[in-house]
Design a protein that fits this description.
Elements lengths: L4 E5 L4 H13 L2 E6 L6 H11 L6 E5 L5 H10 L4 E4 L6 H6 L1 H21 L4 E7 L22 H19 L4 E7 L1 E3 L18 H9 L6 E4 L11 E2 L1 E3 H17 L5 E6 L5 E2 H12 L5 E4 L14 H7 L7 H14 L12
Bound molecules: nicotinamide-adenine-dinucleotide (NAD) and UDP-4-deoxy-4-formamido-beta-L-arabinopyranose.
Length: about 350
């Protein structure tokens, strides 16, 4: 079953790199493509080192998905059995200020990919959607049946791509597509050799906490402590990156084994909610570092409580998350302490 060729777009990124490693360990042959806009080729080198002998099954191409000719060349050199499509821009705040950048990159990138896939008769796809499509949910846990909405440009690109995938599959039943809605991926590979390395000021909670812990930033701003939650801070469903990567392997097997799949959506989360202050406390325990806090206003567009219903993924993908916040914080800290400046330390720090 694993004797297959998989194209991974955005393969040098945070989720992509961890998934590429697990694909290699599972026995798949992988071609990773990435334009390195938000990532470093060092991530691919580290994945190759971690993969041991399986590194012979990994190739990397620096390609922008919107470059049809370059993408076509990649498809001409390998007959792919499936594509896992991570490549996209993901910063919510930036998307609101630069909508054309986001629509151009995420939509044109995806449409070009789908067209090139069709031209090469590769019609098996796994796409990275997001819990952002649940907006401020009326109730929790969020089930896949909730009607989706978009609170910002980034979220709208996810909704539009989900719709494109549904329309495409309706028009041609040879397409078999799994849309995975991730909740809040955190942590790192237990080796501490690969992890999340955002460029610029981190938008997300865990990379920010990590940068405070290693001394790159003075304090964490807690966005709102007047929510209707146990301690007043926002509640999210944090999922260990290794569990998330594993969810992609489960989805891939589903695509290959279940011929009835048309276009199906699955949540990837743990089903458990954790507040900002609980996450800070768990990180302080794992790292032994104190995280100074500044109580700040709510961040615009943030929801109060978001966590996943995990039933559908359990039933149909036979997948469930194994790790809790202790392991997430342990592995995040291991990565941070081994790589305080991420993959590429600035000159002044090396
Ligand atoms: P990431 O930025 O680390 O990885 C995305 C990769 O795609 C980067 O390496 C980037 O350089 C590459 N890329 C972007 N545009 C490209 C293009 N036009 N051509 C080629 N490469 C391009 O982000 P991530 O956290 O690994 O996220 C992966 C996917 O999962 C994204 O689609 C994101 O929207 C989605 N997602 C992420 C989260 C999260 O919290 N990390 C949650 C839900 C969904
Ligand atoms: C988590 C909690 C913040 C930073 C985002 C995207 C979503 C998905 C995952 C891609 C919230 C609080 C955060 C900080 C804080 N990504 N926080 N101080 O907002 O749940 O989801 O990432 O698809 O689409 O919207 O994640 O990590 O930004 O925030 O207090 O400096 O931490 O208010 O309660 P979020 P997050």
């Amino acid at each position: 079953m694993a004797d297959k060729n998989i194209l991974v777009t955005g393969g040098a990124g945070y989720i992509g790199s961890h998934t590429v490693l697990q694909l290699l360990q599972e026995g798949f042959r992988v071609v990773a493509v990435d334009n390195l806009y938000n990532s470093s080729e060092v991530a691919i080198k580290r994945v190759a080192e971690l993969a041991g002998d399986a590194k012979k099954n990994l190739a990397f191409e620096r390609v922008d998905l919107r470059d049809r000719e370059a993408l076509d060349t990649v498809f001409a050199s390998t007959k792919f059995d499936a594509v896992i499509h991570f490549a996209g821009l993901k910063a919510v705040g930036e998307s609101v200020h630069k909508p054309l950048l986001y629509y151009n990159n995420n939509l044109i990138g995806t449409i070009t990919l789908l067209e090139v896939m069709a031209a090469h008769d590769c019609k098996n796809l796994i796409f990275s959607s997001s819990a952002t499509v649940y907006g401020w949910p009326k109730q929790v846990p969020c089930t896949e049946e909730f009607s989706p909405s978009a609170a910002n440009v980034y979220g709208r690109t996810k909704l539009i791509i989900e719709d494109i995938c549904r329309d495409l599959q309706k028009s041609d039943s040879d397409w078999r597509i799994i849309l995975l809605r991730y909740f809040n991926p955190v942590g790192a590979h237990p080796s501490g050799d690969i992890g999340e390395d955002p460029r610029g000021i981190p938008n997300n909670l865990m990379p920010f906490i990590q940068q405070v812990a290693v001394g790159r930033r003075p304090a964490l701003s807690v966005y709102g402590n007047d929510y209707n939650t146990s301690d007043g801070t926002g509640v999210r469903d944090y999922i260990h990156i290794v569990d998330l990567a594993d969810g992609h392997i489960a989805a891939l097997y589903k695509l290959f084994q279940d011929q009835s799949i048309g276009c199906e959506v699955y949540n990837l989360g743990t089903g458990k909610g954790t507040s900002v202050l609980e996450m800070v406390a768990a990180f302080e325990k794992a790292s032994g570092k104190k995280i100074p806090l500044i109580m700040a206003d709510r961040r615009s567009g943030d929801a109060e409580i978001v966590y996943a219903s995990t039933e559908k993924a359990k039933q149909e993908l036979n997948w469930r998350a194994k790790y809790g916040i202790e392991e997430m914080c342990r592995d995040q800290w291991n990565w941070a302490s081994k790589n305080p400046w991420g993959y590429e330390a600035p000159e002044s720090q090396s």
